[in-house]
Batch of 2 targets.
Target 1
Amino acid sequence: MIQSGTTRRTLGLGAAMTLAAGLAQAAPDAASYPALMQGNGCTSCHSISEKIVGPAFQSVAQKYAGDKDAVASLMQSIQNGSRGKWGRIPMPPHANLSQAELKELATWVMTQRP
């Protein structure tokens, strides 16, 4: 079947739009992270579903699932940093965050179950 140039361009554009829509759904966008997380460099080492330097937020939520003290434990790890829980690379402390900010971050992480 012979197609005109317009038909080929339209089909190509449709395929590209379909691919872009699929990729947009598969990858979490920056809007899915709390502003507090973006402003404190959390996403430099962590992502929602993939290990970067530190564990994925989903992995953290899964590890602490069922732990009634999970939010408090995560708040402490965020504030003071941690070492050896997820490998050799330590997480630096974020001592500049308020208790309310720590709680916001820890609570959000716990909602990221796979």
Target 2
Amino acid sequence: MLQQTPVARVEPVWREWMARWPTPADLAAAPPGEAVRAWGRLGYPRRALRLHAAAGAMTSRHHGRVPDTEAALLTLPGVGAYTAAAVATFAFGVRTTVVDTNVRRVLARVVTGAQYPAVSPTRSELAMAQELVPDDPPLASRWSVAVMELGALVCTARSPRCADCPVAQLCAWRAAGHPAYTGPPRRGQAWHGTDRMVRGALLAVLRASDEPVDEVALQDVAAAAGQRERCLDSLVADGLVEPLSHGRYRLPGGPEAT
């Protein structure tokens, strides 16, 4: 849930989710559409389907428990290198390297003296991160969360609080006088009028209904007809929406019309 979504938005959804499905087996027993519904407006809703599939895999292959090694975590649907490393170190104290946007920004400034890291992670950047992780597993886990929090709360992207930074005296970017970023343009993600916005609006209509929804109701979503149809087709292709007979749609695994 926290991937590409702020903590403040995630926390209330996470609390409701854990109250409803406290174990992987509980989630796996629910229809996948209920996971999409409970995901709400966190964004990137395919994550809900992947989490549901991962819960099924944990239930069938790991006796309903979350695997405690990176190798086993990587076999779960939708789990990539970052998620596997984060779960392994934060939940099980494994010494590994957790590199997210915040960590990359901190290391770019403190170690290399750049305002921002490269657009995509490089091999040298990952090697640098690995070298900096302490050898002691418990300390390595604390290190990882500390650097992530430093980037999220102090060494922020737009308004870094250098006066409050505990490593300011070690920071190469500060020592160099805070030189401006000179790399490729860093474009923010547009939202209004995009397919992502329309897909979200279509899912909102379906989440709000316990019954299948007629295509006529989906036409109320503000978008050009061609874009709306394209976005609906993409939701079907992604497994987030199931088409039914007579122009009706539902979340995956939901009830038929009564």
